């Protein structure tokens, strides 16, 4: 198990699903954890309550990280109230699905703002506080390597952009001892993509294991990269997709 005792983590979009699982897993490993939310305050506070009930330390921050000032404020609040920041987990994302002909300029702006811009802004704010051994870990998607069909143009574009972003940040921040990686989930059972949903059987058929993963599977991968196991891993993506991209 990764030992993150004494570390401080900021998990964006940590109120539910994969983000909530990551926050709880990092806290279980010993980290103090800040979670951000945009609208789901009750859910975010429930995550914090569970962390604290298990003996951990949690902080809840309302923040739209697509705004430069807000992203900086979230990092500064984490540093101020938890004593620093060692791990930034960019989990906040926006699911976009639909045919090309129905894509609007507003859709494009929203997806790129949440899935790309917010990650750049959060990394920009966190990097000056991350010392040697610091981590920036982003949650991507199996779509950056294999798109199963049409109607995913926005999602695939945004997640593919994350590949270049991760590679570039790894090169730039490597001399400071900061590791930058991505975890790419396959079909994961969450309220946004339930294992009993309309397309669930199709998605299972795209994996080598023939099954959905759990949010905890992604959380375990993030904890591994955040801990000693990730010391020599940077500028790359870890696929946690049940063999989706094989």
From TrEMBL:
Pfam family, one: adh_short_C2
Ketoreductase domain: residues covered: 7-191
EC numbers: 1.1.1.-
InterPro entries: KR_dom, NAD(P)-bd_dom_sf, SDR_fam
SUPFAM superfamilies hit by this protein: NAD(P)-binding Rossmann-fold domains (SSF51735)
Keyword annotations from UniProtKB, A to Z: Oxidoreductase
Gene3D superfamilies named in the record: NAD(P)-binding Rossmann-like Domain
Class of enzymatic activity (EC top level): oxidoreductase
Protein family: Belongs to the short-chain dehydrogenases/reductases (SDR) family.
PANTHER family the UniProt entry points to: OXIDOREDUCTASE, SHORT-CHAIN DEHYDROGENASE/REDUCTASE FAMILY (AFU_ORTHOLOGUE AFUA_5G02870), SHORT-CHAIN DEHYDROGENASE_REDUCTASE FAMILY PROTEIN
Protein name from the UniProt record: SDR family NAD(P)-dependent oxidoreductase
Organism: Kitasatospora aburaviensis
Upper taxonomic lineage: Bacteria, Bacillati, Actinomycetota, Actinomycetes, Kitasatosporales
């Amino acid at each position: 198990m990764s030992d993150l005792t004494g570390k401080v983590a900021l998990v964006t979009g940590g109120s539910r699903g994969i983000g909530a699982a990551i926050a709880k897993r990092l806290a279980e490993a010993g980290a103090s954890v800040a979670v951000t939310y945009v609208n789901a305050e009750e859910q975010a506070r429930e995550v914090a309550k569970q962390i604290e009930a298990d003996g951990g330390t949690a902080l809840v921050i309302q923040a739209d990280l697509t705004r430069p000032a807000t992203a900086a404020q979230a990092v500064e609040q984490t540093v101020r109230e938890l004593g620093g920041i060692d791990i930034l987990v960019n989990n906040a994302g926006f699911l976009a699905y639909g045919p090309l002909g129905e894509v609007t300029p507003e859709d494009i702006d929203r997806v790129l703002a949440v899935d790309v811009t917010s990650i750049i802004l959060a990394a920009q704010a966190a990097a000056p506080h991350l010392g040697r051994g610091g981590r920036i870990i982003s949650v991507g998607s199996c779509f950056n390597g294999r798109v199963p069909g049409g109607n995913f143009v926005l999602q695939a574009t945004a997640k593919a952009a994350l590949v270049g972003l991760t590679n570039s940040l790894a090169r730039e921040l490597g001399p400071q001892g900061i590791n930058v990686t991505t975890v790419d989930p396959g079909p994961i059972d969450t309220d946004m993509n339930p294992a009993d949903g309309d397309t669930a059987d199709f998605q299972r058929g795209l994996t080598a294991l023939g099954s959905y993963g759990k949010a905890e599977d992604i959380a375990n991968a993030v904890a591994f990269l955040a801990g000693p196991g990730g010391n020599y891993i940077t500028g790359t993506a870890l696929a946690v997709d049940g063999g989706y991209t094989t």
